[in-house]
């Protein structure tokens, strides 16, 4: 199967010297190799999104959103994953958005037939039998167990309809399962809302959503990570470039911190998909909006850290759109004296937020804000940045898989996404191996996994990059021949729980509809 790893790259020592500038010292202490793969047969249908592993049954549970099913896969032999059954959620709602497993209990987040109405969490055993069901907020987007197993935490995105005539509140549901899940009901659910922020307003460093919309409705919780002590949930508010901090036991939002903006003069990017080349260069007065999707939490030396995958996201509804291309907006001539910047080969194609950048209110843009930050970042629990991977993702992929640099996940070829969000980091998980902590990040568009050693949060080191994609094959011409496309969900499986005694990484690829198992050596 196709695979690429930095430590085997033929360019030799000179390449590694260059990489050390961007990633820190190159480490080669682990590598990833594909050992097994399950193909749902559904291309570009969101057929393999979130993945969750149960050690007792040696099964993976995969959210198949398109089919509104949970695919149960037998991975007792991880080289030959096979479907045991597909568990239909049709009687519980319109779509499976997320799945989590802990000690034989499966939690499934299911969206309502009316997306703006309240959804559900359905609890199953590992054979697919329904144990109970509870009502939660609108459009549940991510579900997870606390480490102590006492609660299930759900991020309810609460997106509006296209006309913005119905915009439900975003919220975080806390389900008390301390007494078990069988027979529990809605009385076990508490909801943390954002109504206090209708008066408090946006924190510094956050991004405006829909102007005039109450923040209790405008906030759209995306993803959840829970502290190791099970007391605190960290919830990404992607569109608003913020993270919410939730007291789990009391179901209360205690803080929302803005993430600030990334300077693309100090952190170069490739901003054009029409220049016919890879051009990672400084962009004065251009900034990235972190806007993380996935988030992970880990502790080192008694301190808890948050890792975010800074994907970026705009709003595109019939009644409200907050993105435009630079070529279609008016630039301040003092801030941008070079009139040729609006050409497609320069900044003209770059997508920017229309709600940011007019710093003096005169109707033109003094600064440009691109969605996402093309990186992962580490933060302390108060929202102070500890480290960011800078330009590393684009620099690395340009050198390792230049044919796939900023490629799209359902099309080819090089440079297709440079005007948008670049490699688009989707999600991140942290795994401990031999006393070290590693962050595994899915690059959604280029379709690869990048690994950093984050044992020292102030100075992580790049480790390796792996993919199972054939960039010479256009997915539109040969969906199956192109390999794994669009990694959306990751599950780290430690050696102590692994079916083959080796640490594994399970990957749900939403575009190719495949679930891939990497062995970590």
Q: What would your notes on this structure say?
A:
Helix content is 5%, strand content 38%. It contains four helices and 33 strands. The two termini are 17 Å apart. The protein has helices at 13-23, 197-200, 215-218, 392-400; strands at 32-39, 51-54, 59-64, 69-74, 82-88, 95-102, 105-111, 118-125, 130-138, 140-145, 151-156, 171-176, 189-192, 223-226, 232-237, 242-247, 252-258, 261-263, 286-289, 295-300, 303-309, 323-325, 351-353, 368-371, 376-380, 385-388, 425-433, 436-443, 448-453, 461-467, 487-493, 504-509, 514-520. Residues 1-27 have low confidence and may be disordered. It has a domain at 89-258: Methylamine Dehydrogenase, Chain H. By secondary structure, the protein is mainly beta. 53% of the residues are buried. α1 runs antiparallel to α4 (392-400). Strands 1-33-32-31 form a four-stranded antiparallel sheet, with no helix packed on it. A four-stranded antiparallel sheet has the order 2-3-4-5, with no helix packed on it. It has a four-stranded antiparallel sheet with strand order 6-7-8-9, with no helix packed on it.
Number of helices: 4
Structural class: mainly beta
- Looking at CATH, the homologous superfamily of one domain is YVTN repeat-like/Quinoprotein amine dehydrogenase
As a whole number of angstroms, the C-alpha radius of gyration is: 22 Å
